[in-house]
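sry for the spam today, last one i promise. struct tokens for design, 310 residues
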């Protein structure tokens, strides 16, 4: 039984939105100032779709990640088109869905839920968002060996994206060795035993790497700092960030100062949102237009910081 607060919030959002409105939203923890509502709603309007996008922040209700399933149930009952799912719920929601896309099943992580005819289907647009962001933001970078910091839902998506793009080998590091090992084993099963491994120490992994992708919450406003010692950021490395609030995390700033080619988290944020919006509405968003809007929203001084991730 889901808490009344969740039911009330979902129903109230639907009631305020009015008839004929496509309903969507975001569930996660610490998402009160998310960029997702203005980003989705503005692009939907340009596509001729009236969309109302709500925030369902578990922290506001003092609820654990497991309550994401209750939000899914309430949104399904209220006639929502779908939900986005973020930290720390991308794997929790798996038990509350009727089916998974092939990518979501392979990743065992969902960031987009689509409701159709009473069925809740899980999708993953994080991996495609990252892949498109890397291709457009750092075109032509070498992918022979890439170090991935973080083996959660975002890390799994990044690794899938890297290997789909043709990365020769992804070395996975995480503070939880068991989680890193589990992700590496899953990647080996899908892409081959030689293409994924547990990285060992950060220093040894980076010594022979072409690039580094960071997929932990470190660098967010609530988790400031660097995820690794600055001296390990050799100028020959390219560095991609998944955190996107602030856009210039300490990792992005320090890596750039040290001469690395860098990619902030903005492109992944926009491309995954565009893919999710297409699933919600059936229309084809203009990702370039969404990126221009995102850049305005994410500019210093704006009040709309972006989502957190796992």
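last one done:
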């Amino acid at each position: 039984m889901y808490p009344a607060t969740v039911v009330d919030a979902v129903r109230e959002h639907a009631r305020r939105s009015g008839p004929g409105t496509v309903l969507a939203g975001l569930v996660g923890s610490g998402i009160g100032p998310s960029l997702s509502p203005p980003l989705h709603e503005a692009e939907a309007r340009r596509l001729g779709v009236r969309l109302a996008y709500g925030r369902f922040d578990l922290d506001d209700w003092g609820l654990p990640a497991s309550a994401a399933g209750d939000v899914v149930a309430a949104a399904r009952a209220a006639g929502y088109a779908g939900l986005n799912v973020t930290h720390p719920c991308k794997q929790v929601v798996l038990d509350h869905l009727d089916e998974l896309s092939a990518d979501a099943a392979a990743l065992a992580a969902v960031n987009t839920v689509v409701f159709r005819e009473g069925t809740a289907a899980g999708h993953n647009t994080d991996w495609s968002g990252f892949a498109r962001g890397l291709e457009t933001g750092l075109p032509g970078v070498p992918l022979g060996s890439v170090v991935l910091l973080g083996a959660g839902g975002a890390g799994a998506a990044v690794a899938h994206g890297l290997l789909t793009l043709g990365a020769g080998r992804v070395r996975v590091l995480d503070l939880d060795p068991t989680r890193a090992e589990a992700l590496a084993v899953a990647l080996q099963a899908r892409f081959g035993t030689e293409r994924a491994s547990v990285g060992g120490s950060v220093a040894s992994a980076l010594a022979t790497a072409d690039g580094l992708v960071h997929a932990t919450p470190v660098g967010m406003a609530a988790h400031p700092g660097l995820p690794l010692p600055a001296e390990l950021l050799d100028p020959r490395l390219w560095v991609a960030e998944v955190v996107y609030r602030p856009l210039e995390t300490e990792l992005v700033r320090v890596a750039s100062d040290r001469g690395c080619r860098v990619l902030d988290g903005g492109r992944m944020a926009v491309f995954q949102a565009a893919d999710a919006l297409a699933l919600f509405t059936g229309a084809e968003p203009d990702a370039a237009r969404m990126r221009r809007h995102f850049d305005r929203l994410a500019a210093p001084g704006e009040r709309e910081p972006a989502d957190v991730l796992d």
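The first strand starts at residue 22 and ends at 28. ok im logging off now
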